[in-house]
Amino acid sequence: MKAILEFNLPEEEAEFKQAANAGDMYCAIFEFSQYLRKKLKYEDLSEQELKTYEEVKAEFLGILEEYNLE
């Protein structure tokens, strides 16, 4: 199976850049997810820090779910 994306440049330059950088965006999102996981699992956090990181992780995962990016 093949998929071909076509863009009318320069009119669709922004859309082209989004598509061209999607792999890097995925890697950045994954890396941030791993950062949160490591903080929560391996670091000795205060109760306030733990609560804050849990809230950030829940919000982050909620946003990913809204965009069907689980």
Radius of gyration: 17 Å
SSE order, as H and E?
HHH
End-to-end separation in angstroms reads 24 Å
pLDDT below 50 for ≥5 consecutive residues: which ranges?
A: none
Query: What number is the mean pLDDT?
Result: 96
Percent of residues in helices: over 70%
Number of domains: 1
Largest sheet: none
Shape: elongated
Tell me what you see in this structure:
The chain is mainly α and 70 residues long. It has helices at residues 13-20, 22-42, 47-66. Helix 2 (22-42) runs antiparallel to helix 3 (47-66). The longest helix has 21 residues, at 22-42. It starts with 12 loop residues before the first helix and ends with a helix.
Features:
3 helices; elongated; 70 residues; 0% strand; mainly alpha
Topology diagram in text:
Blueprint: H1 13-20, H2 22-42, H3 47-66
Helix pairs in contact: 2-3
Concise overview:
This protein has 70 residues and is mainly alpha-helical. It is 70% helix and 0% strand.
